[in-house]
Amino acid sequence: MANKSFNLSELNGANGFVINGIDAGDFSGRQVSNAGDVNGDGIDDLIIGAPYADPNGKSKAGESYVIFGSSSGFSASIDLSTLNGSNGFIINGIEANDLSCFSVSAAGDINGDGIDDLIVGALFADPNGNSIAGESYVVFGSSSGFSVSLDLATLNGSNGFTINGIDAGDKLGIFVSNAGDINDDGIDDLVMGATGVDSNGNSGAGASYVVFGSDSGFSASLDLTTLNGSNGFVIEGFEAGGLLGYSVSAAGDVNGDGIDDLIVSAPWSAPNGNSKAGAVYVVFGSNSGFSASLDLSNLNGSNGFAINGINLGDYSGRSVSGAGDVNGDGIDDLIIGAPQIPFATSIPASTGASYVVFGSNSGFSASLNLSTLNGSNGFVIEGIAPGDSLGLFVSSAGDVNGDGIDDLIIGAPFADPNGNSKAGQSYVVFGSSNGFSASLDPSTLDGSNGFAINGIAAEDNSGRSVSGAGDVNGDGIDDLIIGARYADPNGKSEGGQSYVVFGNIAPKLDLNGQGTGINFAASFTPRRRSVSVVDSAALTVADFALPGGVKTALNPNTATLKGATVKITNLLDGTNELLRATPGTTGITATYDAALGVLTLTGTATLAQYQQVLRTVVYNNKATNPNTTARTIEFVLDDGQAHSNTSAVATTTVTFKQSAATVTSPTVTSQEAAAAATTTVSTETAQDNSVFSLAQLDGINGFTISGTTEGENFGLLVSGEGDFNGDGFDDLVISAPYADPRRKTSAGTAYVVFGSGEGIPANLKASDLDGSNGFAIPGLAVLNRSGRSSAIVGDMNGDGLDDLIIGAPYASTQGDNVGEAYVIFGSNTPFPATFNLANLNGSNGFTLYPQILPQGQAADNFASAGFSPAEGGFGRSVNSAGDINGDGREELALDSFPETILPDGRSDSREYK
């Protein structure tokens, strides 16, 4: 079944990887983000902040780590100390206690050179002597490579630039982000929060600054006092203590006018008089220009709108982000975190919630109350347990399941997954074009609508930072990154860890090989052989990637699956029903649970190998009087990835045929009696207890097979119910034990007649068999009576084809006439018109014969059974014994004549298996 949760401890390089902080107390992963493609190789990169790192001996100056994406794969873990310029690089803060990289983000392409850039915030920096005014740093991407480390002090306008906070205590850089292209000039812009700004004289009202990108170049530093509307503008808070700019983000295009918008938050605001309920503001982009400043109290629905938190102390907007297009309507949406929402009025612990607001091209009012979200205009994602603080960080996830609709990721860093207190949990909610209810409980995520990601160890706080990662492994599917700042990598307390979880497209199973459907129908006749429950020639297995945005099937000889399940959903005859598969040499293990009716295939193997094994799945029912209600058999593949790991359910419906008709005895001439004849009657439409005359056989409802010579006893025994040549149709084997092939009296002959979907003549002679429609198997020596018994016995050698056994009860191995049996392996390569048993060599079959023991020695098993040379009889009766040891392959049953005289003088008849 699809993974409804995934443990980060299971990251193995194939499904994602772990990124370990360097030193104790660094808090690596305090913030994590997609970096865009900063080295110009066409693959997305990552940036991770460690604000308490000590670069160049400067305590808490902070470090940022850029990890380059790669299509060559990743190890299960990466130590940030191994970054060397080729796989990534380090960005060093400038001064002690700056907390550089307190916030980190992709910046988009700010300088218009076609390569993505980065932005890093240092809220405690002291530019121009202004204590804690804060700084932000833009680092330009480059296709010319990077050194192992970059000191932010070396930014000079050509490799990046510094943005200085204005006044002491402004805390510029508490949050930084790409802003999209808000002025519609074709170049990306930036937005930065500064919560300490006293906008319009309101203490702690906060502000956000938008800096427009430019292809005309930048100076080494930018003073925000110079923003004038042409190069950027300031967004001013209006409520004292509201802390505008605590979280800022590009919003995408939420009003559908083709221009990117912004979202900024003031989580300590008191909308509608509710203290610290929080407020969020959407500022619409425009190609008509901006003034030097924008007062958010002037948003009126045409230039943007306010989003009001609901209750006292919700802190709505603690985290905000563009959500991408989660409802598939072609317009971008928003997500807002409110981590402090109480579990109940009597329980102060914070469950938290997140709100998704749908974009619209129908316009917005000046304000929107989150309490009005009803499923049509957005929905709420509710926290699960007290103290989880769901929504402390929220982000777009990109499209992690490859369905073409954007997804979401939400952190709940104080959740207790797997009993690990505050290990943290993150929730991925899949986007959908089928609509959402007004609320979503993350505990209902089941793998089809999203999944949970569990932190590893107690107190790690996994999910305190979350982000879409872009496509870091180059498979065309978006990935995720999650920060756990308090994790202890390699025993380094609070060194911090980050986790990358790869996106994945679910595998696909098509039981009939038709692109229009994945299902199949089969028909089973009670008390007969197993029936294939797939199209054994056309079943296909596939897995996918999205290179270049085009869904592409992976190479079936290299891409792998982890397992598959086949289940009888309505097991009406209990343990009498069975499913079987033949793994052969694939390395896949097949295990059947008879009590549950579940066949489980396990083992990492290629798509081609799983396809090979699934093509051999058969159903049987050994009940004496089976319930003939149609059975439903469900197939599911598992590719072993973190999520979206299972295929859609493929279904086979097995119907039960009627019993065979009663056939009246024909009238035959004395000459016909000598050669004998075998008659096959179709039973598809015959009713129980009906009477059928052989004179009616016309090739459509059945056919007659005639022997070749007088006295050969053609048709003494007839067997079938197996596909010997792999064409999807059952075949027949017919005995003529007194035939004289090659003038060898009573050597005997067995005839194999191939089933066919192209029709069989109403009258077929054994002499007409030419290798294409069947073939003859003559006995080896005079009086062998080969073919006295014969049967198609299932798949003994694990190649997916049924095999054949022929008994020759008077054959002589040592001049003793004790009998032999011959196993001929099925094959989908052509057969000659006559098959020579002397050519059996182990690869195409083998010979069975008993061992003659001295008189008085016990004979208690097949290998050492003894016989009297005078009586013979081994191979008198041969047949399949089914799979009696549960290894997935058929065993044999062989019988001797009654009253066989054993060497010790006892008389006996035996069956050997």
- CATH architectural name of the largest domain: 7 Propeller
CATH superfamily of the largest domain: Integrin alpha, N-terminal
Number of helices: 2
Estimate the mean pLDDT confidence. Answer: 88
At the fold tier of CATH, the topology name of the largest domain is Methylamine Dehydrogenase, Chain H
The unreliable regions are 343-347, 660-675, 679-689, 855-871, 898-913
> How far apart, in Å, are the first and last alpha carbons?
39 Å
As for the number of domains, it is: 3
Helix content: under 10%
**How many strand units?**
68
Structural class: mainly beta
Strands of the widest sheet, in order across it, are 39-50-49-44-47-46
Strand content range = 35-45%
The CATH class of the largest domain: Mainly Beta
The biggest beta sheet reads: 6 strands, mixed
How does the overall form come out from the CA principal axes?
elongated
Calculate Rg over CA atoms: 38 Å
Quaternary status: single chain
Region (Disordered): 878-913
Protein name: VCBS repeat-containing protein
Keywords: Glycoprotein, Hydrolase, Repeat, Signal
GO molecular function, one term: hydrolase activity
